[in-house]
Amino acid sequence: MIDARTRLGYLLWSSGVFYFSYGLTNFLTSLREDVPEIVFDWEWDIPFLAWTIIPYWSLNLLYIFPFFLCQSRAQLHNYAARLLLGQSIAILGFLFFPLQNTWIRPETGGVFGFLFQSLESFDQPYNQAPSLHIILTIVVGGFYWRLLPKYRLLLCLWLGVIAFSILTTYQHHFLDLPTGALVGFLVMWLLPENGISPIFVKQSQNLVAYHRRLIGFYSIGMVIFALLAFWGGVWLWSLWGSLSLGLVAFAYWRGVLIFQKKPDGKLTSASYLLLLPYLIGAGLNIVYWLYGKQKSSLVFGGVSVGSILASCEFDAVLDCCGELPITAPKIYEQALMLDLVPPSVDELCKAAEKLDRLQRENDRVLVACALGYGRSVAVVLTWLLATRKVEELNEAIFLMKNARQKIMLSDYVLHQIERASQAFQARRVCE
C-alpha cells in the first residue's frame, strides 16, 4: 500500500515542476523579439465558445486524482514519470521553437470569465507547440482508460472535448494539437505501464547486411518526410510519417519488441498511433500482393501457411508477424519476427517448438506472417524438417511449393532452416 504522504509528495513535486518550468519558459519567450505565429487561414472560422473553458479546466482535476488512485508504487512512479517526460519534451519545444498566439478573446463575464481570468494569471500566449495541454490529456487519459474500461466511450468523448477546447478558448492554434498528440503518444510508447521502455530493450538480434540495408532505407525515408515538412501547410503532416519510419528503422536496429505487440495480437495504442502511416502502407502492400490470391494454403497435417488476414478461419494461430496487428482466435501464440530479414536459428527453433505443440493439440493451425510467403514459410519448413515429417530440406521445399507457389526464401534463410532443425533435434535429445 502507498501511504497518503507519499501520494501527496508525488503530486506536489509534479505540480511544482510543472508550474515552475511552464512559467519560466513563458517568461523567457516573452523577452524575445519577433516570436512567430503559425495559423492557417481556415482557423479564423473557429468560433469562440466560452463554456469550453470548463472542460479545459477539468483536466486539472483529472490530473490530480490518479496520484490517489494508483494501486502500486510502480504505477504511481510511471504516471509521474510520464508527466515529467511529456513536460520536458514540451519545454524543449517552447524554448527552441517558440511560437505565440495573438488572438484576442471576446470579453467574458460570470463563471466563465472568472475561469479565463484565473488562467491568465499564470499563463501567457507563448507556450504553444507542442501543446502541453494535449500531451497531458493523453497521459492522464491513458490512466483512466485502464482504470475505467466500462466507461471508455464517455471518456473518449470528454477527452475529445478537452482537446478541441484549446481551439475554442483561443488558447492555441491548430498546429499545437497534432504536435502535442504525437508527443503524448511518444511518451506513452517510451514509458509503457507494463514492460521495459523501448530505448532500454536489450538488442534481440545479431545485425546482418539485411538489417543494415533496411535501417538505411527507412532512415532515408524518415529524412525525406521530415524535409517535406519545410514546405509548410498540409506538408507538416509528413512529420508524422517521418516519426513512423524512424521507429521502424529503430526496430530493425533493436528488435521486434519496438512494435509493442501485445499477447492478444494487438499493438499498444501508442504504438498504433505513432506507426499509423507505416501501418497504412504495410496494409496496402498486403492488399496489392494478395489481391485475387489465396490468403492461406494447407501444407501438411492440418498446418497451413498464410497471411494474418486469414487468422479468423483457423482453430489456432502461430503469429510470426511482429509489426502488424492481428485478429487472434481463441488459441493464439506468438513467434514474432521482423519482415524482410532472415530469422535467427533461435527464432526458428522456438517457433517450430510452438508449432509442434499447436499441431498436436489442434486440427487446423495457421502459421501467419504479413503475406504468408516468407517468415511463416521458414517456420513450417523448419518444423517439417526438425520433426522428421520429411527427411530432406528439398523435399520440404517441394511440399511447400505444391501448396504455396510464391514463396520468398534466400539461400541464407535455407541455411538457417537447416541449422534450426538440427538445434531443435539436439534439444529433444537433451530432454
Q: What can you see in these coordinates?
A:
With 431 residues, this protein is of the alpha/beta class. It folds into 3 domains: 4-190, no CATH class; 209-285, no CATH class; 294-430, Alpha-Beta Complex (Protein-Tyrosine Phosphatase, Chain A). The protein contains 16 helices and 5 strands. Strands 1-2-5-3-4 form a 5-stranded mixed sheet, with helices on one face. A hairpin with a 2-residue loop joins strand 1 and strand 2. The longest helix has 27 residues, at 4-30. It is elongated. The mean pLDDT is 93. This is Phosphatase. The chain crosses the membrane at residues 7-28, 48-69, 81-99, 128-145, 152-170, 182-201, 213-231, 237-259, 271-291. One of its GO terms (cellular component) is membrane. Residues 346-415 form the Tyrosine specific protein phosphatases domain.
Task: Name the descriptors.
transmembrane helix, Protein-Tyrosine Phosphatase, Chain A, 57% helix, alpha/beta, 3 domains, TYR_PHOSPHATASE_DUAL_dom, 5 strands, transmembrane, Prot-tyrosine_phosphatase-like
Summarize the helices and strands and which ones pair or pack.
Elements: H1 4-30, H2 53-64, H3 66-69, H4 73-96, H5 110-120, H6 132-147, H7 152-168, H8 176-190, H9 209-228, H10 238-254, H11 269-274, H12 276-290, E1 296-300, E2 303-307, E3 316-321, E4 331-337, H13 345-361, E5 365-369, H14 375-386, H15 393-403, H16 411-430
Parallel strand pairs: 2-5, 3-4, 3-5
Antiparallel strand pairs: 1-2
Transmembrane segments: 7-28, 48-69, 81-99, 128-145, 152-170, 182-201, 213-231, 237-259, 271-291
Protein name: Phosphatase
GO cellular component, one term: membrane
